[in-house]
Amino acid sequence: MAPSIRLSPAARSLFDEPLAIAVQGLGPRQQVTLRTSLRDETGELFQASARYQAGDDGELDLARCPALPGGSFSGLEPMGLLWALQPEKPFWRLVKRDVQSPFLLQMEVFEGHGERPGRLLAQAQHERAFLRDGVRRVPVREGRIRATLFLPPGDGPFPGIIDLYGTGGGLPEYRACLLANHGFAVLALAFYSYEDLPKGMKEFHLEYFEEAVNYMLHHTQVKGPGIGLLGHSKGGDLCVSMASFLKGITATALINGSVANVGAVLRYKDITIPPLGINPKRIKVGKSGIADIIDVLNSPLEGPDQQSFIPLEKAECCFLFIVGQDDHNWKSEFFAVEGSKRLQAHGKEKPEIVCYPGAGHYIEPPFFPMCAASMHLLFGKPVMWGGEPKAHCEAQIDAWQQIQAFFRKHLTGKPSGTSSNL
């Protein structure tokens, strides 16, 4: 029989779900190269390949068969062909803009282990979707709010979360959408560089975010009495500010966030929090031309920069810090530890801190390929984000479970029995 690729689920899976990959009909111990590719919505190509040898029965199951050296990865990596995808274009990050359409994954099996692909033996296509059947996507344009609400199937009400991304601006929906697939009502909130919102990151007014919190608190499909906040990078320190000053927040999870206000002035009523100072002389540029900006920010523990430390001791919520210990955007672990010290010094509950060695700045939902370096909007040049691909991938899988367990526990009162396996 001719070789063929067997996938489970067969034709379509959710992006954060594992995909089982096997090849059948090969010759005994036949050497083959497997290649995956997908194009993002701008047409940019991402590819990964791995070298394998079939079993004595001509079967090749990636869950049981290790990849041989010479490809994008080696060893037993059932999902390696997805997490190892790399862009053809330098400094390009895989993002999903339209969550209503899937990514189309192409898979090919080639003869042999040559530098150039041998004869094509089998191929298959698979859709990696973002929106589970029955999840509702609701654009929100109420008052000043520019957002998209994702509601799980069923009657609800559901535990509610506001999701914020970082300095990229716009309205990324993919994390909010994937989280809604797991039973949360999630509001992906734009805060600049989108429609009629401010174009640049000069100053933010917490009243805008308060409108979004109140929208969620009063929504009939959102289970009270409080909501959760999830923020990455700049979105993280905005979530800390929201938790510190606004009512109705029960749980706040930060992915490589800061406990100091960064990049823009923050105003709320008669309070002004200045941004943490920076020293561009501390940028290190390697031979590759990629900037390492990890030391650029001043310490929020010294001098006038102490005014940038967000008063998170005022917060009435529980905190979870997800930390990539190889984050090169800024010192996420330092921020988490200092936030924990501040909370405990004021008699507040010690936050959960989950650290991942070998994980970089962009800890995304599972199976997004690690982005080692890309353009930084504020610096106008490519910067390194840190991370080692395999460790980063494992961190994304675990962090995704930790985040859901944290919100289930604090927003529904039900423990979900998830413990870190790292």
UniProtKB/TrEMBL annotation:
It comes from Calcarius ornatus. Residues 16-142 form the Acyl-CoA thioester hydrolase/bile acid-CoA amino acid N-acetyltransferase domain. SUPFAM superfamilies: alpha/beta-Hydrolases. This is ACOT1 thioesterase. One of its GO terms (biological process) is acyl-CoA metabolic process. Belongs to the C/M/P thioester hydrolase family. Residues 205-412 form the BAAT/Acyl-CoA thioester hydrolase C-terminal domain. The keyword Lipid metabolism applies. GO terms for molecular function: fatty acyl-CoA hydrolase activity. It holds the Pfam family Bile_Hydr_Trans. InterPro entries: AB_hydrolase_fold, Acyl-CoA_thioEstase_long-chain, BAAT_C, Thio_Ohase/aa_AcTrfase, Thio_Ohase/BAAT_N. The gene is Acot1_0.
